[in-house]
Amino acid sequence: MTPADDLLDIATEIAREAGALAHRRRAEGVTIAATKSALADIVTDADREVEDLIRARLSAARPADGFLGEESGAGQREAEITWVVDPIDGTVNYAYGQPAYAVSIAAVAGDPDPESWTALAGVVYCPPTGELFRAARGSGAWLGDRRLQVNADAGPAGALIGTGFGYDPATHEGTLDQIRRVMPIARDLRRGGAASLDLASVAAGRLDAYYERGLQPWDHAAGALLVREAGGVVSGSPGGRPGRRMTIAAAPGLFERLSALLDD
Ligand code: IPD
């Protein structure tokens, strides 16, 4: 067992417990507790409760580690290992009872600059489907006992491409322009609503590629590791290609073509 495998075991156990709580809270009925930067940028009571649970479990298991969570922000910034957590990624789906939401937990080394982090272990757990995607650095990406591999470049046949829309109204024109640019090489586009699951889908070959501008570290720290361990390339994420704000994830050839189309 490598140290990354140990971190993965901890993340897996906590993600399952956190996912069960999210699932239970969803069944009880969820209320939107606050709208943050935009109408689509919401937080529910369950997001906070689930993050509190994950934080408590991590601090019991690994008291010296740092923490960066979507709802509660950062704690203990000088740690060797930092846990980067989105308690419920896809909160809008979750609030509306759509099944595409996930608990995303990653352990990263290096602090404090997200650009220079190295993701060591990552878990993306979707409670409604029971699917738990996991990766440890150097040990591959897995769904159950199936080792994941990104699709080869789809070439002229066209790629199934996932994307997400930034919340900031100032980016909306740019979003539409990006769609115009990628449509000629796309078989079709998808907007799934949970970045961690979009990245897991690229790793699992359910999407050929995914791109989105302006993701936060907790949206993609675990998912980007899944893609890299499944043989793909990722930009704009911890440990990804430096110098890009745009997250692009795909097999190497398709990554280059999308990069040229979507250059920042
Ligand atoms: C959001 C989702 C969405 C993406 C946004 C993210 P949240 O995360 O991943 O798909 O388009 O950029 O912020 O707010 O639901 O945790």
From TrEMBL:
Enzyme Commission number(s) of this protein: 3.1.3.25
Transmembrane spans: none
Chain residues that bind Mg(2+): 70, 86, 88-89, 219
Name the record gives this protein: Inositol-1-monophosphatase
UniProt cofactor(s): Mg(2+)
Family the UniProt entry places it in: Belongs to the inositol monophosphatase superfamily.
Sorted UniProt keywords: Hydrolase, Magnesium, Metal-binding
Keyword presence, Hydrolase: yes
SUPFAM superfamilies given in the database record: Carbohydrate phosphatase
Annotated GO biological process: inositol metabolic process; phosphatidylinositol phosphate biosynthetic process; signal transduction
InterPro entries: IMPase (IPR033942), Inositol_monoP_metal-BS (IPR020583), Inositol_monophosphatase-like (IPR000760), Inositol_monophosphatase_CS (IPR020550)
Catalytic reactions of this protein: a myo-inositol phosphate + H2O = myo-inositol + phosphate
Enzyme class at the top of the EC tree: hydrolase
